Amino acid sequence: MFIQRIEDFQIPKEIDIQIGELLEEAFPGYPKGQSYYKQVPDFRYLVWNEEELIGHMAIEHRLMSNGGNPIKVFGVTDLCVKDSFQHKKLATRLLQELEDLGRKFELDFIILLARDHELYLTNGFQLVKNDCRWLLIHDNASLGIIHRKIEQTLMMKPLSSKKWKNGLLDFLGPAF
Ligand SMILES: CC(C)(COP(=O)(O)OP(=O)(O)OC[C@H]1O[C@@H](n2cnc3c(N)ncnc32)[C@H](O)[C@@H]1OP(=O)(O)O)[C@@H](O)C(=O)NCCC(=O)NCCS
Fold first, then answer.
1. Ligand 1: residues whose CB is within 6 Å?
2. Which of 24, 83, 94, 118 to probe ligand 1 with, by most ligand atoms within 8 A of CB?
3. Looking at ligand 1, which atom is closest to the CA of residue 27?
4. Ligand 1 centre from 119 Cα, in Å?
């Protein structure tokens, strides 16, 4: 079993198809034949068991604004592990790899949206509530700016000495 980190634009078609199949299996209603939900990520972690893709995590590298301060962020999306390989700490390893990368290159926070918090709380993430602003994308069109409080799903992990602020969190792009 090994973990690969790859920039999205480098992913060959046949692997892109495997990613789409894994995402469809993991997330009911995921867009068919697609390896991204609304927008392509910057890079991904892929977990391989020989030729079989058994885990995935997509990452957006984004400058965001938190309470008026610019923050450098890794945004996590589409984290999943194939059923038969779950509960073996694979997702934990992926989050740890991302954290190591973020600390090495001086990112400020990892941010994600999740309804089930257990995995992330165990891995040192905190639930936060902020007024948020993001670009709404649907059917490959920009539909406008959403401004809404996000509670119960917004989670972050600090990687630098920057303190999290309770003011507006502006995604400066789509939500992830
Ligand atoms: C969430 C998921 C990636 C965890 O992968 P994993 O490799 O089994 O994770 P780990 O072994 O590192 O940690 C397992 C712990 O995560 C927690 N967990 C389980 N399902 C979870 C979920 N859907 N969301 C968050 N945490 C979850 C549990 O506390 C679990 O502990 P346990 O093994 O004692 O039951 C995997 O269950 C999955 O792919 N689920 C379907 C897709 C999904 O819901 N992804 C999360 C999107 S936010």
1. 26, 79-81, 86-92, 114, 116, 118-119
2. 118
3. 42
4. 6
- Angle of CA points 46, 37, 9, to nearest 5°: 50
Please state which CATH number belongs to domain 2-174. 3.40.630.30
Provide the b/e sequence for 51-84 (b: ≥16 CB within 10 Å).
eebbbbbbbbebebbbeeeebbbbbbbbbbbbee
Q: How far is the CA of 63 from the centre of ligand 1 (A)?
A: 27
Nearest atom in ligand 1 to the alpha carbon of residue 81 is: 39
Q: Per residue in 99-136, pLDDT tens?
A: 999 999 999 999 999 999 999 999 999 999 999 999 99
Task: Collect all residues with Cβ–Cβ distance below 8 Å to 112 and sequence separation of at least 6.
Answer: 75, 76, 77, 79, 120, 125, 155, 156, 176
Q: What is the pLDDT of residues 141-160, one digit of tens each?
A: 999 999 999 999 999 999 99
**What are 91's two structure tokens?**
């997702």
pLDDT averaged over every residue in the chain: 97
Domain boundaries, the chain: 2-174
